[in-house]
Specification:
By secondary structure, the protein is mainly α. The protein has helices spanning 17-26, 28-51, 55-83, 88-103, 109-137, 140-168, 175-181, 184-194, 201-206, 210-221, 246-271, 273-279, 288-312, 315-335, 341-354, 356-369, 375-403, 405-427, 436-440. Helix content is 75%, strand content 0%. Residues 22-432 form the Major facilitator superfamily (MFS) profile domain. It is a multi-pass membrane protein.
Length: 447
């Protein structure tokens, strides 16, 4: 009697070399985002006196990339659902290379704001493109970890920017030009690694291109794979207004709001770390960069831990407990700005570590909670929502530090993280172990 061998389908596939490579190169967008948003804070140390920047232009330069992210995510998420993931997966990085190099030759604050906006536009486009592509190829057992890697890449980019900025600051008064242009180097590496990536078979199947979809899944998962493994259901037209339907609207609000309340204080801290750490009297001259780099390591450690915790601990408890500790840490920083340096450092370290899991869930939740026909659109919309808050927070932070002081600024950040906690307690679902179809069918008030 011949023994029947069960071959795993798409959702239960092992972690193949193709999937590992895809996880690495889709992480490029978040890596560049972290690098670009962090390196500008260091460049501003030289740019402020050279361009004679006041609070308005400093805030505009800090917020410009975030505004670009808002527009890029909202527009190109929908375009990606209409036209596919593959083409834009490479083109957006070419834009980052060009605009990064052009930053080296700016002579006015307005020129820099414009180029920072264009860079943000390209990074914002990459978020829905790359994350949808990764989610649609990922088996359910590894999806949380693979999507969590995107958040780790953001902080890895920030750490890389900290190291690059510290080294480049030693090169002289024009170091800011090399800092701003340096983002072109990782972008160039990523473009070469992304070349040849196939189109998402889920997107192809959702558009009725079943022959092409079958060819891709056999190429990626093996000759035994079939279209039934995708479990995509009937062909469905991409309609942006579907996000306004009650069930999807609540999901959009949930992800958009918790993401906003997480990144608004976080991005502001990243962009203006020199001013914030100086307000806490941590370091002098360029010494603050060392403390900043150590705090970045806590951010990175938290996201790396989330790769394991999202499956072990579950999505809902992980995000609730993380926001709880973030709120507590920010509250301590707000009520004790004159505390000893070790306590201030511990407050930042706790906040940084527990920012990791929500950062991973920024990518996991929107890609799991929406169907293929509107997945990239949803990611783009929630990215845009979060960047509205982040841009406002980043623009307002210099004014807040100058007029309200460090204590009140930190307490306002505490309020934002607490509101994120409230949103998660009310709406955060558990999607661990579900297929994409099962997760996207969840109704948030019926958990």
């Amino acid at each position: 009697m011949t023994k029947t061998t069960h071959l795993p389908g798409v959702e239960d596939s092992p972690l193949t070399p193709f999937l590992k490579k895809l996880a690495v190169y889709t992480s490029g967008g978040p890596f560049l985002d972290g690098y670009i948003l962090t390196i500008i804070g260091m460049a501003l140390l030289q740019l402020q006196p050279e361009l004679q920047l006041d609070s308005f232009w400093t805030g505009m330069i800090g917020a410009a990339a975030l505004i670009g992210l808002l527009v890029g995510g909202a527009v190109f998420g929908y375009v990606t659902d209409l036209t596919g993931r593959q083409f834009m997966y490479k083109i957006d990085l070419i834009g980052i290379i060009i605009f990064s190099i052009l930053q080296m030759f700016i002579t006015t604050a307005g020129e820099l704001v414009f180029l920072r906006f264009l860079i943000g536009l390209a990074v914002g486009a990459d978020y829905p493109i790359a994350t949808a592509l990764l989610a649609e190829f990922s088996p359910r057992r590894y999806r949380g970890a693979m999507m969590g890697l995107l958040a780790s890449a953001w902080y890895a980019g920030a750490v890389a920017a900290g190291i690059a900025g510290y080294l480049l600051l030693q090169t002289g008064p024009d170091a800011w030009r090399w800092m701003l242009g340096s983002a072109a180097i990782p972008a160039l590496i990523l473009v070469s690694g992304r070349w040849g990536t196939p189109e998402s078979p889920r997107w192809l199947a959702s558009k009725g291109q079943t022959g092409e979809a079958l060819a891709v899944i056999k190429q990626v998962y093996g000759p035994h794979a079939s279209l039934q493994d995708l479990d995509e259901g009937a062909t469905e037209k991409t309609r942006l207004r579907k996000l306004l339907e009650p069930d999807y609207l609540k999901k959009t609000l949930f992800v958009g709001l918790f993401w906003t309340f997480q990144v608004a204080p976080c991005f502001a801290i990243y962009t203006f770390a020199p001013q914030i750490l100086a307000a806490f009297r941590l370091g002098s001259g360029n010494d603050w960069i060392i403390g900043y780099a150590v705090i970045n390591i806590f951010f990175l450690t938290g996201t790396l831990a989330s790769i394991y915790l999202v499956n072990c601990f579950g999505r809902r408890p992980l995000i609730i407990w993380s926001f709880s500790f973030m709120t507590l840490a920010m509250f301590v920083l707000g009520i004790a700005p004159g505390a000893p340096a070790w306590l201030i450092f511990c407050g930042f370290a706790v906040y940084a570590f527990f920012s990791g899991p929500p950062s991973a869930l920024d990518w996991i939740y929107p890609n799991e909670l929406f169907p293929t026909s509107i997945r990239a659109s949803a990611v783009g919309v929630v990215t845009a929502i979060s960047r509205i808050g982040a841009a406002i927070g980043t623009f307002a932070l210099p004014y807040s530090l100058q007029t309200l002081g460090i204590s009140t600024t930190m307490l306002l950040s505490t309020l934002l993280t607490f509101l994120g906690l409230v949103v998660c307690v009310a709406w955060a679902p558990e999607t661990r172990g579900l297929t994409l179809k099962e997760a996207s069918a969840l109704v948030l008030d019926k958990q």
